[in-house]
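G., the chain you wanted modeled:
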Amino acid sequence: MTWESLASGASMALATIRAHKLRSFLTVLGVIIGTAAVIGVGSIITGLDGAVSNIFRSLGPNTILVFKFNIGPRVGRLSAEERNRKPLTLEHARAIAERCPSVEHVSPYLLSPNAFSRFGMDRARYKGDEIYNFELGGTEEAYAFGGTEMKFGRFLSATDNHYRLPVCVIGEDIQRQWFPNVDPVGKWIEVNGRRLEIIGAMKRPAASLPGEEDRRILLPYFTMRKMFPNAQEHLLVVIAKEGRLAQAMDEVRHVLRIERRVPHNAPDNFAMSTPEQMLEDFRRIMAVTAIVTVVLSSIGLLVGGIGVMNIMLVSVTERTREIGIRKAVGARRADIVWQFLTEAVVLTALGGFFGMMLGWLISKAAGLVFPNLPTAVPLWAAAAGVLVSVGVGLFFGIWPAAKAARLDPVEALRYE
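Predicted structure as tokens:
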């Protein structure tokens, strides 16, 4: 097969497509949708991976999050053993701070009793404007060492905590909702019926999930304990000394196993996570998501391939006399096969091209809807879109091409 014959076949294929524009478009619609799905979802997954990577890494390379079960990305529900574990306590945080030489700071984070409740709900109000979907917690000044930056005012101090002062700091999106373009310091709000003075507003974390809002209301630890005597669930934020993360994790595990009286031959009844571990868990989940997406998009490609095969069989029937004439003047079977395979490949390649454009538009639209999502069309998705669309044309064009090549020239010339 020469380049001249390939170019001639491509030219004939384009002429056929131009002659039947609507039919050709409907034929490759499945290919367009399948390719767009691969490109669009691939770009979103790539952007989401970048955004989540930034979030986890913004926690700091030396941060360890300790909870009674794994709080990172996971597949499946909690086990019965995990649900029945005893919560961590303030005493655990104090023991880590005293007995772990590789630990720089430890901050307890007391969760609202409504955080895991199906029936209760936290409520905050400022001058009749109420909000319900926010994160309420009690913590200490060491929490800010995890990278918290203030937009207005200051963070919680040891004095606030010691005297159980009725103060709080709020997240940036709550500040924007209640106090747009206004310094909220000194304003009083109500949280679950208790009056609290705002002493600061935090900046939204530099890296946050697409569409995620900073709706935190943080109180001094003992103020939170005073407001919610029945609150039990603690998250411990542990910051290791520079270059001593592994040692800190070993020390924290050793101390907690002693404090929680875990037998030497039993597994931990708590979980420790680092940003890198959570990122690995997230990527494993995204890998499964990518595989599922490719499988689902392949259904569209399969439908498109069947359409291509169907329209090529129709084309063979319509051009029976043309095939007879070509054979009569010396065309070989291979020439006929290459002619129809070229037409099928050109048809699906055009579908793949328009699918790539549609996928790129989906990527840009996702970037506009979620400004924090750094969408980009990955090279593997673009290459896969081209290769798969060409492969669909080759695979589903073989039968029609073989049927055309097997036609008897005498019978073909008689065909009306």
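Residues 107 and 237 are 5 Å apart (CA to CA).

Shout if anything looks off.
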